[in-house]
Write a structure and sequence with these properties.
about 280 residues; Glutamine Phosphoribosylpyrophosphate, subunit 1, domain 1; five-stranded antiparallel sheet; globular
């Protein structure tokens, strides 16, 4: 389906026919082979080493939500990339953190961004946060064939709900099953350790600054016990990506802001390597 207008000066009929506000539906009807989930993989024998993104964490606070990720991508026991980006804005009021097969995950995020932009242009309105979460669920489900072959994508979705006036977090499984998380969430290879840190330190009255520190603490704990999760790399100046979403929209912390939090956490860890302690009672 090309948009070649050199001969007639008109767009193909597909572009002028009324239909769904979903770009995926449009592509599936007119050029289904372009959708990632419709690709046919060549037969392979044995394990295929492909870069994987790892730990993503999120935590809500009064007024918004924080979504953050480490910077390491692994390929088996090898560090494939030390400074990969795993957290992306989906639109002005939401963001996606990716875990799983890195190449497919980044491609899915780009398609999701286009899906939301297409809806807004067709409908003249922003899709609700619930609707965004459902659209992402459909995209993950369309990748099920690849997931069953080991190429899974398991993102974490977070955003500010303009209707409910609060931050919300959604997690997914490889089949596209969606669950709303309350308070905090984690996904990826280091998620067990990150979730443990969040569980002990999280409170629902944390400030924005405290919440950004909390997610960095959780990523630090994940890197402490999971070799696929990268901690703050002071020598190379590689720090976690930390984003904040409020009623003012999406904002990514600058490198100076991220480094200040990471260095403060690191300095405290020199005195207390296992991190801050939660009260017993």
């Amino acid at each position: 389906m090309g948009a070649n207008i050199s001969s007639t000066g008109r767009l193909p009929a597909a572009f002028l026919t009324p239909g769904s506000s979903s770009f995926m539906d449009f592509l599936g009807e007119h050029s289904p082979e372009l959708l990632p989930g419709n690709r046919t993989l060549p037969p392979v024998q044995g394990a295929v080493e492909i870069p994987h993104g790892t730990t993503i964490v999120a935590a809500a606070f009064p007024g918004g939500v924080v979504l953050a990720g480490d910077r390491r991508a692994t390929m088996g026991n090898i560090i494939a990339q030390r400074d990969i980006e795993k957290v992306f804005p989906a639109d002005e009021y939401s963001a996606v953190g990716i875990a799983g097969t890195a190449g497919l995950a980044v491609e899915m995020v780009k398609l999701f961004q286009l899906e939301l932009e297409h809806y807004e242009k067709i409908e003249g309105d922003v899709l609700s946060l619930e609707g965004k979460a459902n659209r992402l669920s459909t995209m993950i489900r369309s990748n099920l064939g690849m997931a069953l072959q080991g190429l899974a994508v398991v993102p974490l979705f977070a955003g500010y709900d303009l209707d409910r006036e609060k931050g919300r977090i959604f997690s997914y499984d490889v089949t596209g099953g969606r669950s709303e998380e309350h308070g905090f969430a984690a996904t990826g290879s280091g998620s067990v350790f990150a979730r443990g840190a969040l569980k002990k330190l999280y409170r629902d009255d944390l400030t924005e600054q405290q919440t950004t520190t909390l997610v960095v603490q959780a990523l630090y704990d994940a890197a402490d016990d999971d070799s696929a999760t990268g901690g703050p790399d002071m020598a190379r100046r590689i720090y976690p990506i930390v984003t904040v979403i409020t009623d003012e929209g999406f904002r990514r912390l600058t490198e100076a802001e991220s480094s200040e939090i990471a260095r403060a956490v690191h300095e405290r860890r020199l005195e207390q390597p296992d991190g801050p302690r939660a009260a017993i009672l």
